[in-house]
Structure to design on (940 residues):
């Protein structure tokens, strides 16, 4: 099947198998390996990307469903080599250790901050519920998102 | 102190991870690479009657299919530790085949590998492989595995015991002391089986180069050199110099990526067979079925107290499940990493632990964050609190009565335990008091009283843990059954321009070595961190190493680097003396230069480096170059300790536990980077809380796993946890050059009993004295009703 998907501002057309998930398309066809696969039940959120501005677990969406959509992945967050304020905040607050869940965390953080520009700790924790991190105990991820909120509101 | 040690330096590795530019194994694509999928047993125990690959072989894209009948079926992966029976009988070590040939012995055991051009083709074809099984009865509980009529995991022995073992004082003496004790507290429980769940599933690519007759294995491992050793010398019998192991970015380990897995060896073999690279990446379902699990101890323990609450004796019997085969470190976990911690932080005069380690029809059990020490700490910290509860004492009071007095390991000797080890340094009371202050213990007790009057169930739980890490002195572990040394290697190569490349056998999979190691290297050399690069995870680049586990990277790996730095500075001084036309003794080294004492005559580190490589005007007889490698074998384990306190509220209607506060005061010796130490504690605490409240791998009686996905296996999510309130006391380790003890496992070791103690405390007035983990709402609710 032919799909046309805009990823990080660039439009691609590919003939793909209908059963290919969006995350496989990103990783295998476009070589955008920043989006990770941590489970097979939509439980871990490592594959979170933005589709038309909404956070989506890209393992649960078929690539063909993204036909005509605008997708942003972790690779599209930094602009001109400059980290996005959310990425910078994760570094500042040590919001990552092994880095595997991190792309999904950054993408879901963007979604949380879009919906709650001044999030409470509870709103952040609620927003992170769909994403597992096994390294940080979430402590510094919450702090990172709090700092990102401050920076983005400046 | 220099510019970097002790500072919260931000991590250098973060940029690539944050930009999605990390290189995890599954991110790597090689030319002509094939993909693979496994056919795995749907039974815990079954005879393989036949395997029919006819249809599968005809499927699109299939390159090769191998089963246990192929030559790879004759190879197996080894166990790295030998614990013999108490009666002298050798440990029973079954062959752990790369593919099962005649029988499968746990759910998910591989019976065939299908290699194809694409992953989808491999998976499609794997579904066409027809395996005819005859299902056999299975046993999954370690206690039941030792019953008389239990189904045998391995037919070659008369029962399921892999080994048995004991440690401590004479059993009869301990029993006699218990008889005479004023009060005896009893605990019977199962320290439940856990799935480590590093977020990156295991992933391997084997690439055999026909022309060079060399193998490269890209693997998500915590210890590349150890994998090379096990793969070459034991699994496949291929020459070590023909093998390169690459382990770049690894997405968490927590123990589960220490071991040499069958898939690593099988892919390596298969790559040569088909002459192309082969990749396999586990999915999460496979990870639940095939990654080594942790814990799984069935425990019966008695602790005796005198009338003042002083411990007089402690006797424990445990059945510790090994799973179907002995994983790399498995025998060490419930023995030398467990029994040796039974002294805890207390002066208990008589201790005896007896361990029986049976095979069960389950995936192998091995080290999981803490490895034996969380199990020991859970028992000690629960049973002393239970004892206090039964005797009407405060849990703080009973601990203060039993603490080993402070000792620094320098002025005062190390503390000799009843269970083989000698602690290095400790001040247990100081950490407890700091934690109590941080919590506001007295105020909490008032608040709890008030809450109870309002019908609310608040509880506080204390855990004053100790652990043994910095693994380990080779001679000691060798005497205890280890089949390898546990030193570490650190090479420091000063480049001609004075830039420094450090090669370490330690491996970072989240710990931040690229930052922390550079901090102390830069300080010791008096140069900028930007001039130091840390290399790890490639056996062609790093001379040798033993990898990362047992919180050993800084204390053992860091010390090896320090040894090399000392050699660099010693040789550098000779070159500097020559250049300055001064005696070596008249020089001092600081801020990156050698200065003639009392003068302004100096020469920089960079100048000396250049001279070492351009030795035109050079000390006679001195070799050119400035590059040293060192092996560091630690003199002792290190013994971090601390106090963890949990505050919980239990919903009286549903039994749901809310963790409201968690205070962690950890003493990990000197601290190189407090930001990273805190991060390690946060993550460890989260995993320990996970065990207390949420996590459990459940096999049913027939050996089916009923918690095989994130739909069923509950791990802590962001809204299950509060902010973790961390602090430290600092009692330096007296026997390594950095004075560090290790922080990787402390959080997971100390936290679990704190949480359970808190829940029991919340329900104490209802007569609850113990609850089985995990403390799910229905479990807690039931306990409240009884």
């Amino acid at each position: 099947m032919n799909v046309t998907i805009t990823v990080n501002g660039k439009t691609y057309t590919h003939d793909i198998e209908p059963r290919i998930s969006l995350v496989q398309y990103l990783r295998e066809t476009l070589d955008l390996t920043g989006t990770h696969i941590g489970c097979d039940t939509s439980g871990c959120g490592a594959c979170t990307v933005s589709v038309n501005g909404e956070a989506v677990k890209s393992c649960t969406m078929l690539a063909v469903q993204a036909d005509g959509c605008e997708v942003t992945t972790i690779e599209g967050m930094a602009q001109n080599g400059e980290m996005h304020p959310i990425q910078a905040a994760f570094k500042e607050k040590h919001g990552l250790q092994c880095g595997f869940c991190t792309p999904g965390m950054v993408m879901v953080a963007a979604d949380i901050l879009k919906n709650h520009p001044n999030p409470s700790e509870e709103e952040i924790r609620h927003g992170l519920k769909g994403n597992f991190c096994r390294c940080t105990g979430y402590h510094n991820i919450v702090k990172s998102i709090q700092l990102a909120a401050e920076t983005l509101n400046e | 102190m220099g510019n970097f040690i002790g500072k919260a330096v931000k991590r250098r590795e973060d940029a690539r991870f944050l930009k999605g530019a990390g290189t995890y194994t599954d991110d790597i694509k090689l030319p002509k690479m094939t993909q693979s999928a496994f056919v795995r047993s749907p039974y815990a125990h079954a005879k393989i009657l036949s395997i029919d690959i006819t249809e599968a072989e005809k499927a699109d894209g299939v390159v090769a299919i191998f089963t246990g009948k192929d030559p790879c079926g004759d190879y197996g992966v080894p166990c790295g530790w030998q614990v013999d029976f108490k009666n002298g009988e050798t440990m029973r070590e079954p062959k752990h085949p790369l593919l099962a040939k005649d029988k499968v012995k746990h759910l998910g055991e591989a019976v065939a590998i299908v290699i194809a051009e694409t992953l989808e083709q491999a998976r499609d074809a794997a579904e066409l492989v027809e395996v005819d099984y005859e299902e056999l009865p299975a046993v999954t509980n370690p206690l039941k595995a030792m019953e008389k009529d239990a189904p045998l995991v391995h037919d070659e022995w008369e029962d399921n015991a892999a080994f048995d073992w004991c440690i401590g004082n004479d059993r009869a003496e301990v029993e006699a002391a218990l008889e005479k004790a004023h009060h005896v507290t009893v605990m019977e429980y199962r320290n439940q089986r856990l799935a480590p769940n590093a977020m990156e599933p295991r992933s391997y690519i084997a690439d055999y180069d026909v022309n060079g007759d060399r193998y490269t294995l890209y693997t998500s491992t915590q210890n590349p050199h150890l994998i090379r050793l096990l793969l070459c010398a034991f699994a496949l019998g291929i020459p070590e110099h023909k093998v390169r192991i690459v382990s770049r970015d690894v997405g968490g380990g927590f123990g589960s990526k220490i071991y040499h897995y069958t898939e690593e060896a099988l892919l390596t073999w298969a790559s040569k067979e088909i002459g192309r690279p082969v990749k396999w990446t586990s999915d999460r379902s496979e990870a639940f079925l095939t990654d080594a699990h942790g814990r799984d101890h069935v425990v019966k323990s008695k602790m005796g107290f005198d009338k003042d609450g002083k411990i007089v004796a402690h006797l424990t019997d445990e059945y510790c499940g090994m799973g179907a085969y002995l994983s790399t470190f498995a025998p060490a976990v419930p023995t030398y990493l467990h029994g040796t911690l039974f002294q805890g932080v207390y002066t208990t005069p008589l201790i005896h632990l007896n361990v029986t380690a049976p095979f069960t029809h389950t995936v192998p059990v091995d080290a999981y964050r803490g490895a034996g020490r969380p199990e020991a700490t859970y028992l000690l910290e629960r049973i002393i609190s239970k004892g206090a509860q039964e005797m009407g004492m405060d849990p703080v009071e009973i601990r203060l009565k039993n603490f080993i007095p402070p000792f620094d390991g320098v002025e005062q000797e190390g503390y000799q335990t009843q269970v083989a080890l000698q602690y290095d340094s400790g001040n247990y009371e100081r950490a407890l008091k700091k934690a109590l202050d941080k919590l506001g213990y007295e105020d909490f007790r008032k608040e709890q009283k008030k809450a109870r009057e309002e019908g609310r169930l608040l509880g506080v739980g204390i855990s004053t843990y100790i652990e043994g890490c910095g693994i380990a002195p080779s001679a000691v572990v060798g005497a205890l059954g280890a089949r390898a040394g546990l030193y570490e290697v650190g090479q420091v190569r000063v480049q001609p321009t004075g830039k420094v490349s450090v090669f370490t056998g330690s491996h970072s999979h989240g710990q931040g070595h690229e930052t922390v190691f550079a901090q102390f290297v830069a300080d010791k050399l008096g140069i900028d961190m930007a001039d130091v690069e840390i290399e790890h995870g490639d056996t062609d680049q790093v001379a040798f190493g033993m990898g990362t586990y047992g919180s050993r990277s800084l204390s053992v790996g860091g010390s090896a680097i320090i040894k090399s730095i000392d050699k660099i500075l010693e040789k550098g001084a000779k070159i500097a003396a020559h250049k300055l036309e001064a005696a070596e003794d008249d020089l001092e080294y600081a801020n990156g230069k050698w200065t003639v004492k009392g003068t302004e005559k100096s020469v920089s580190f960079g100048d000396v480096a250049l001279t070492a490589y351009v030795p035109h005007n050079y000390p006679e007889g001195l070799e050119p170059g400035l590059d040293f490698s060192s092996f560091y074998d630690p003199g002792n384990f290190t013994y971090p300790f601390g106090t963890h306190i949990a505050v919980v509220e239990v919903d009286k209607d549903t039994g749901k536990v809310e963790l409201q506060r968690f205070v962690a005061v950890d003493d990990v010796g000197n601290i190189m980077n407090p930001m990273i130490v805190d991060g390690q504690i946060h993550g460890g605490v989260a995993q320990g809380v996970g065990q207390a409240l949420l996590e459990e791998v459940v096999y049913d009686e027939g050996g089916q796993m009923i918690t095989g996905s994130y739909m069923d296996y509950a791990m802590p999510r962001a809204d299950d946890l509060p902010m973790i309130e961390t602090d430290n006391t600092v009692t330096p380790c007296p026997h390594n050059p950095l004075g560090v003890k290790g922080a990787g496992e402390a959080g997971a070791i100390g936290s679990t009993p704190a949480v359970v103690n808190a829940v029991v405390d919340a329900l104490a007035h209802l007569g609850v004295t113990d609850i089985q983990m995990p403390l799910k709402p229905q479990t807690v609710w039931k306990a409240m009703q009884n």
